[in-house]
Fold this sequence. Notes:
- The protein is α/β, with parallel strands linked by helices and 330 residues long.
- The chain folds into three domains: 4-97, MurE/MurF, N-terminal domain (Udp-n-acetylmuramoylalanyl-d-glutamate--2,6- Diaminopimelate Ligase, Chain: A, domain 1, 3-Layer(aba) Sandwich); 114-292, Hexapeptide repeat proteins (UDP N-Acetylglucosamine Acyltransferase, domain 1, 3 Solenoid); 300-330.
- Helix content is 20%, strand content 27%.
- The strands form six sheets. A nine-stranded parallel β-sheet has the order 8-11-14-17-22-25-28-31-34, with no helix packed on it. Strands 10-13-16-21-24-27-30-33-35 form a nine-stranded parallel β-sheet, with no helix packed on it. Strands 9-12-15-20-23-26-29-32 form an eight-stranded parallel β-sheet, with no helix packed on it.
- It is flat, with a radius of gyration of 26 Å.
Amino acid sequence: MAEIRLAEIVAALGGTLHGEGSLVIRALAPLEDAGPHDISFLSNPKYQQQLANSQAGCVIVAPALQAQAMERGHCIVADNPYLYFAKLTQLWRARTSGSAAVRGPGDWVHPSAVVHPDALVHPSARIGALCVIERGARIGALTELRSRVTVGEDCVVGQRCLIHPGVVIGADGFGFAPDGPRWEKIEQLGAVQIGNDVEIGANTCIDRGALRDTVIEDGVKLDNLIQVGHNVHIGRNTAIAGCVGIAGSARIGAQCTIGGGAIVLGHLEIADHVQISAGTLVSKSIRSPGHYTGIFPLDENSAWERNAASLKQLHKLRERIRVLESEHKK
């Protein structure tokens, strides 16, 4: 069982400890489930009641909650408890994983992985079971590909990236030209360029470009089951939740967030610092930073049908209002 003392946590991550540094922590846990040798955190003040009732050995809190936390026991005070907890999970993973022996070039490639002789994999990269790295692909330093990841021909993955199982980077984009009743394939001649410090969730697919490359800039975080179409460009440090679909040639700015299940239509542009709510259909470009939502609210079905029918008549009502306003002005 892994163990770490509170004093060691504060020495590594900072913050102010109130309580005994010798207290041994054996697990990280949610407030409601934590026990005397667990550490948890509270970042949202509306859950203060959980803090009072928690049996956690130590709780990470903001300065505003210091008094309440000290009443119940040990606490670490940090300006941003959620960020502190994130760094604590990294520290915990490092402690529980143990230190691996130094290995030579190629020793981090699983025996079942298939790496083309013309691919370039940095010696410090880790390639998991059943991965496929195709001709001309490049994998940067300290990047980890978990099991069954495919990196297509000439695609580039930067440094310190984490690619989860089942990800496909560089499949053909969806490009076909109509020829009467049939479709003629447009060969996808671009690749995919992925920057540094990118994380891509399980079974996400990033298509190669048709002529120019699909680009994922540094620091982007993609959840599971996301579809990124050909020639899409995603700016630095943008985070996108699961089941989002981004159609071809859309351009998404830096420092954006996109909620789960949202759809971004092709060839649109989204400015930097835009937040898009879950389930939103983005059908036009967004030129200014801000929070945008486009969801028809859930309702009992008969009421929803009536509201939807009324919505379809809005354009006619608008025209009638314009006529009435015009007549009134006369």
